[in-house]
Write a structure and sequence with these properties.
The chain is 28% helix and 24% strand. By secondary structure, the chain is α+β, with helices and mostly antiparallel strands. It has a six-stranded antiparallel β-sheet with strand order 4-5-8-17-10-15. The chain has a five-stranded antiparallel β-sheet with strand order 14-11-16-9-18, with no helix packed on it. Strand 12 and strand 13 form a beta hairpin. The termini are far apart. The N terminus is likely disordered.
Length: 401
């Protein structure tokens, strides 16, 4: 081989390496931890499964589905007044999703660099993180080593209807989260069946347990989420090559016979359903733009008051069935009104139902991050009975572009 050709090859290789070399900046609260060799093996297993989860999420949204040539197709409105049908879009056409995908590619290209920002959250101080149950903890040696407090103990102490629902979900957490089908849209199984260390070791949060304005007591006890990557998750990357990392990726679990009421937030959001339903209408969801002519809007000082009237069965045309195959991916634009309804159809029992999803936000570092439940028009006393047909008011706030 001539020196000139060899020089060109080496130069090309250096350019290629440089093209993938990224500068990672961790969040300030990521502190390097010292581990024994045995502990490091447990940390590595947690990291490897987290990396698989993130990699599969990227691959899935990049794989063409529906009418999209270079992206997965997501539902952005379950009902559009203009067509009377759902509205879809190729999800990577959104700039925020495109940027999230770019940052995930950088992580996968240089995992050892990214790993410096990985924290098991064994001694996390910001807020409590839990493992659902002893059965969940026993799925992996890593979860046992982390020894997070159990949600079953949390809900026993809480008591009441919220505690009862929380116990029902968490005592059966493994059964609920195992009822998944990832064969259609995922190259690898990202559920608890395929990644047991991740699902048992990530810190779970009883998000609405103590929020009396969040809907029925059964829903408040029957909803959990966990964050693998993001500002409050295990992988906390602040910047990549000077760009703010807005990706926030995790998972959610919702108990059957519950409604996650209408709600909204500034960050854009995605859900990929993993649950395989027993019948087609077992799990439903809804997403519509806040300015839809199906609702009534009134301008205020800091946003809009949106009145939603789904009474007399009107809500049924807004909601769609969700499953792990056909209606599996949705994208919520900023301030989109959305809800999840797991109450209709099937002879539901804890063994055959629930709603489990891969969950992600793409802009977790700008505007207000809080999820804001809408409220019943009849007043706070009607919160316990909130459902899709409840007349509801959402005080949607302006966001800064």
């Amino acid at each position: 081989m001539s020196k000139r050709i060899l020089s060109c090859l080496i130069g090309s290789a250096l350019v290629s390496v440089h093209a993938f070399a990224a500068d990672f900046k961790c969040q300030d609260d990521v502190v390097p931890a010292k581990h024994t060799p045995e502990e490091q093996q447990l940390v590595d297993q947690f990291w490897n499964e987290s990396l698989t989860y993130l990699g599969q999420f990227l691959k899935t949204i990049e794989t063409p589905t529906g009418q999209c040539k270079d992206s997965a197709q997501a539902t952005v409105q379950t009902y559009s007044s203009q067509t009377g049908k759902a509205q879809t879009r190729c999800v990577l056409k959104y700039r925020d999703v495109e940027l999230m995908a770019k940052h995930l590619r950088a992580i996968l290209a240089e995992p050892e660099k990214a790993k410096a920002c990985f924290d098991t959250q064994k001694n996390y101080k910001e807020f409590p993180l839990y493992t659902p149950s002893e059965q969940t903890r026993n799925l992996s040696a890593t979860a046992k080593w982390l020894n997070r407090p159990l949600l079953t103990d949390f809900y026993k102490k809480m008591g009441g209807e919220v505690g009862k629902a929380g116990l029902e979900l968490n005592e059966n957490f493994v059964a609920v989260t195992s009822r998944t089908d990832t064969s259609v849209h995922w190259a690898k199984d990202v559920s608890i069946n395929g990644l047991p260390t991740l699902w048992s070791s990530v810190g779970w949060i009883p998000f609405y347990a103590e929020n009396k304005a969040a809907g029925s007591e059964r829903f408040r006890g029957g909803y959990l989420y966990a964050e693998v990557m993001g500002p409050w998750g295990n992988l906390r990357i602040k910047e990549i090559d000077g760009e703010t990392v807005g990706a926030e990726i995790g998972m959610t679990a919702q108990l059957f016979n519950t409604t996650y009421p209408f709600h909204y937030h500034h960050p854009q959001e995605m859900y990929a359903t993993l649950t395989k339903p027993q019948c087609i209408d077992q799990n439903k969801y809804m997403v519509m733009h806040w300015d839809s002519d199906q609702f009534r809007q009134k301008r205020g000082d800091k946003g809009w008051t949106v009145e939603i009237d789904g009474s007399n069965g009107r809500w049924k045309k807004w909601f769609a069935n969700t499953d792990s195959n056909k209606e599996w991916l949705t994208y919520f634009e900023r301030n989109a009104i959305h809800a999840f309804h797991a109450r209709e159809g099937c002879n539901q029992t804890i063994e055959n139902s629930g709603l489990v999803s891969v969950w992600a936000r793409s802009s977790a570092m700008d505007n207000e991050q809080s999820t804001r439940p809408c409220q019943p028009a009849a007043g706070a006393g009607a919160v316990k009975d909130m459902g899709p047909g409840t007349k509801t008011v959402c005080n949607v706030r302006d966001w800064k572009p």
